[in-house]
Amino acid sequence: MPSESVWIATISADRGYFDTMRSEDDEIEFPAHYPERAFVLRGAQVRVGRRRAAGGAGPEIDLTGPPQDPGISHVHVLFLAQAENSWALIDLGSTNGTRVNGGTDPIAQGTPVAITSGDRIHLGAWTTLTLTSSKQNRDNAS
């Protein structure tokens, strides 16, 4: 069987990113415990954000917490499937911006940015999504 890449976004709290982005008068504290989570990117698009308290359709990757990163928008970014089993990232107008690979400037809102395996997507005050791609036999992909 032909193989295809399976893309995984691993969510973690990034102390280095938090320290870089935090201002002196900021009252946000880095979480003492933040369990790492992993999500498979599937379909034509994958929304990342926080579920609204009022309900409704939430994002495919829900970063609601606890602990909750106060800098994450309800629909922060969108992963958009591209040709040849690759992905692009779009900031959907988030309040606090989206940064890639430790950059200090946020990516342009509404503009697709190509991403590759190993890229680190920084959202909110401390949240980082690390992307990995691995080839798997289609029969074994979950």
Keywords:
142 residues, mainly beta, 10 strands, 5% helix, disordered C terminus
Strand content: 35-45%
Based on CA inertia axes, which overall geometry fits? globular
Low-confidence runs of at least 5 consecutive residues: 137-142
Major pleated sheet: 5 strands, antiparallel
Mean pLDDT: 88
The residue fraction in helices comes out at: under 10%
Order of SSEs, N→C? EHEEEEEEEEE
Strand order of the largest sheet: 2-1-10-9-7
SS field, number of helical segments: 1
CA distance, first residue to last residue: 15 Å
Structural class computed from helices and strand pairing: mainly beta
* Total DSSP E strands: 10
Using only C-alpha atoms, the radius of gyration works out to 15 Å
Model description:
This protein is mainly beta and 142 residues long. The protein has one helix spanning 15-21, and strands at 3-13, 37-40, 45-49, 61-62, 77-82, 86-91, 98-100, 113-115, 120-123, 127-137. It has a five-stranded antiparallel β-sheet. A five-stranded mixed β-sheet has the order 4-3-5-6-8, with no helix packed on it. Strand 9 (120-123) and strand 10 form a beta hairpin. The model is unreliable at 137-142 (pLDDT under 50).
Q: In brief, what are we looking at here?
A:
The protein has 142 residues and is mainly β.
